[in-house]
Amino acid sequence: MIKFDQVNKRYPGSNQALQNISFEIEAGELVYVTGHSGAGKSTLLKLIAALERPTSGTVLINNQNISHLRSAVVPYLRRKFGLVFQDHKLLYDRNCFDNVALPLHINGITGNEAGKRVRAALDKVGLLDKEKAMPITLSGGEQQRLAIARAVVSRPAILIADEPTGNLDATYAAEIMQLFHAFQQVGVTVIIATHDVREIKPHTKVLKLDHGHLTTLRGDSKTEETAA
Fold first, then answer.
1. pLDDT of 44-66, one tens digit each?
2. Is there a contact between 77 and 157 (Cβ–Cβ < 8 Å)?
3. Is residue 31 domain-resident?
């Protein structure tokens, strides 16, 4: 479970990135975060993934207040997350297999177990036959699928994607969104930031940001509200 309670975030020397944000995300939900460029979507995702800490307010991840966590504990919390970025952040000097294996090696998983997990992740995204290929030889959609394989290889409870289809054409974008929906259907909490409202499935939770404010919260089974 993820809970924000009156969360504010201000970066040094800049305007308030987020102001008085409150919402809850239950385990296994699919949630879209929308808003214009600069609305605060990426900051919100970074707070969820403990890549940033709030200036004030409370961010709870599975009842852990990330503001109070010691720095040494944060890497263990981040193991719960799989992160997908718009620009992939792939290692172009390593083949597809080694790119996907990297999170496992960081967590001390190597050998046969790592190989099984890497090939399972590549298979899920339709790239099993590309394990020896270099990322530069892949299409944009394939590179994004490779990034998703790397994000899910550690079997995270929460999958976070920041504008994952921003650089893709409509066909590739639809394929990527189908992958995210498939992970949510097997119990993974999926949070997707997107500026393209056409990607949003009906009857799903939507957090809409406008200049750092949460203006609408749609699809909450408990409350459906418009923020003041």
1. 999 999 999 999 999 999 888 98
2. no
3. yes
Which residues, listed in sequence order, are joined to residue 75 by a DSSP beta bridge? none
- Closest C-alpha to 209, from 12, 9, 28: 9
**CB atoms near residue 94 (< 10 Å):** 14
73 in a structural domain = yes
As a whole number of angstroms, the distance between CA 58 and CA 21 comes to 10
- As a whole number of Å, the CA-based R_g of the chain is 18
Judged by DSSP in three states, 217 sits in strand
As a whole number of angstroms, the distance between CA 201 and CA 197 comes to 9
Collapse the DSSP code of 29 into the 3-class scheme (helix H, G, I; strand E, B; otherwise coil) and give the result: coil
Cα(119)–Cα(30) distance, integer angstroms? 25
Contact 138, 146 (CB under 8 A): yes
For 217, phi and psi rounded to 5 degrees? -130, 110
Whether 143 and 88 have beta carbons less than 8 Å apart is answered as yes
Q: For the chain, how many residues are written?
A: 228
CA atoms within 13 A on the CB side of 195: 11
Please write the tens of the pLDDT for every residue from 153-184. Answer: 999 999 999 998 887 888 888 888 999 999 99
Strands (E), 66-108: 81-85
Query: Is 134 part of a structural domain of the chain?
Result: no
Q: Give the CATH number, domain containing residue 199.
A: 3.40.50.300
pTM of the model: 0.89
